[in-house]
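Q: I'm a student working through a structural biology exercise. My instructor gave each of us a protein and asked us to get a predicted structure, then write a short paragraph describing it. Mine is Protein TsetseEP domain-containing protein. I'm not confident about reading structure output yet, so if you can add a plain explanation after the tokens, that would really help. Here is the sequence I was given:
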Amino acid sequence: MGRTIRILSLLLLALTRGHAEDTSTTETHTETKTTEYGPISMVIDQLADMAVDVSDETSSQLQANIERTLMDITDNIDAMTTNAMAEMSIAIDDTNQLLMANPSCNAAWNMQEFTINVTDQLRACTMRLSGMIGAYRDDGQQVLSNVQSFVQQMAQLPILCQNQAMGAALAPLGLSFDNSNSCFLRGMTAINQGLAEAMHNASLLLVRTRRLSQEQGARSQQCSDAVVAQVVEYLRVQRANCS
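A: Happy to help. First, here is the predicted structure for Protein TsetseEP domain-containing protein. I'll explain a few features afterward.
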């Protein structure tokens, strides 16, 4: 994301230099500047296209990071439950065979109900971790939407700056219309600042979510390990009492 800000800053610097050169040659190139679509307008469009391309790439990378983080949390939950059940499977099967062969040992034994009960206990261990998925998905969509809104503003800025009749659309940016070139400069600067803040917030969300998921994942793993230990011990006692 820092790379994007540097690139956009270079684009603004290039346009600023072009604007300065254009201003210094106003007297000798009046006809060129006052054409409906002259060289400066072409440069503005090209710079806007470049900025949009860079920002689009950043937006796509952000979306990929959000989706990957969501997938990591989901995979962690699935792996935790799968591994726990795998650790208990032999003990459950051995106990089931013994108790089914000796109904008097535990007449109330039901392997299906027992397995469901254990699964519910494991699910409770990962409940908070699972709850993070929905909250992070909503927050991620919001920060992504914020970034994409600035990309859209970049794409629309050249047209808005060239059309003074649409000046009201630029009011939120606090722009006036002394000329379309300075309008574009100030508009791109404001958008660039907003985009930088939006991407910074997105980075904070990613870092915070990964940290919290690791912390909650560790607690969930401890809970899962405790469930496994309790179940294995319970089954050992059941087999011992039936031998």
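A: Here are two points you could use in your paragraph. Helices lie at 2-24, 30-33, 39-101, 111-125, 127-162, 180-241. Residues 39-101 form the longest helix (63 residues). It's a good idea to check both against the output above yourself.
Q: Great, thank you!
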